[in-house]
Amino acid sequence: MDRRRFLSRSAAVAAGTAVVGGPFQGLAAGTAHAGTNRAPGADAARGRPGAGGYGPLLPTPDERDGAVRLHLPEGFRYRSFNEAGSPMSDGTPTPGKHDGMASFRGRRGKTVLVRNHEVNGPVGAFGNAAEAYDPACGGGTTTAIVDRYGNVEWSGVSLNGTQMNCSGGPMPWGSWVTCEETVNGPDVGPDFTGQPNTKLTQKHGYLFEVPSDGTSSRVPIRSAGRFAHESAVFDPITGAVYMTEDNFGFASGFYRYLPPVTPWIGGKLRDGGRLQMLAVKKRPNLDLSAGQQPGAAYDITWVDIDDPDPAFAPGTTNDQAIQAVGNQGRAKGAALFSRLEGAYYQRGVVYFVSTQGGATPAGDTAPDGFGDGRGQVWAYNTVTRRLRLVFESPGSAKLDLPDNVTVSPRGTLVLCEDGDGDNFLRGLTVDGRIFDLARMEPVAGDAGAEFAGSTFGPDGHTLYVNIQSRKGMSIAVWGPWHKGGF
């Protein structure tokens, strides 16, 4: 959508809130099936077309080399590309740990993909270290121009020298905002890996903007907070960037950043705005990571973060630093979530995922970290300031630790799993039905491999998705989408 059409539509939405509400508006209001009250035995139907699915998953060879990397329904095909270590068009070896990703319309029918690489530690920057934000750090983003079948026209570095680039979000003016899921820096003690931060030259834990048609300025947006960012989405109605926090061992928060100038001026997100954190009205510090009733809903407010970009005194531990921004909000009553990861915006509603939210289902064990459930999906209406539960996993067999999320042209959510066993791409239909789209063939020597970065191409023909592992790669999937929930 070009700028004029987007502004026109945004004005219409702001003027009449009756048109606000994404495809799950009815489900979030409790008028359709919720995951926690489905009938016994409903799982048996979730792979069939009548339940939104496409049929049983079959081992499917990769069009690139014939190896079986995915199990897909009959009629679906895929091609992998930009495998870790393979040379990109600019001569740089493709970094690993492919993660969050977004698609943009390119020239001559091509798709532009901007892709994160969640690399941690002082391992050195990929690409030209002289251009890196921090030459010691190996995270960042790469950009690839591909066709509908995963054939690469060009690929190269678009941001380097950052760390733990987990997810982010596409901005409607044509940029990808990438998020650092860390607060490492020379002022912070060793992180969960035990590696010292003394080699780092910059503070980390920020948003960086990457234009889809170029490279990043590598200047962080510090006023948007220094915390374990996961995802970011823009709402033209409020003019805010909504952000999730994935704080594995501690409570996480849901944030919004109010930029000082609308991003339409200059076509970029500017530093110097206000950072706020979500709180539930009249219920300070409500723990929303706990199990919820189907259709649970809350009226919310926002509390200011007074020091969004803290610098830490010598001796500050990583555990202390990673909670510093969130603790400011919780001191004012901000709500508690468990591991907020993927987020997606549509028509005045922000959908976001709590990876370990919910009660521990019968037959499952509580995962490590903060939160005992197998996942929740929340919907926040930016106009009514109403937060509703869309779905809570009743067990790992149905949905196991959802992470990145996107939406199909038909309105079905695509959820990337980050579970302990087999990892799936799951679909969640607007009437609350879960079905399987893909299962990952286990990656040899990397039990932690997972799906990430799912995004449909601009014309809806292709679903692009990443395998996040040490030997990561991107994949293009296409097939008879019209036969099921997507």
UniProtKB/TrEMBL annotation:
Q: Where is the composition biased (Low complexity)?
A: 38-48
Region described as Disordered: spans on this chain: 35-62
Which Pfam families has this protein been placed in? Answer: PhoX (PF05787)
Q: What is this protein called?
A: PhoX family protein
* Species per Swiss-Prot/TrEMBL record: Yinghuangia soli
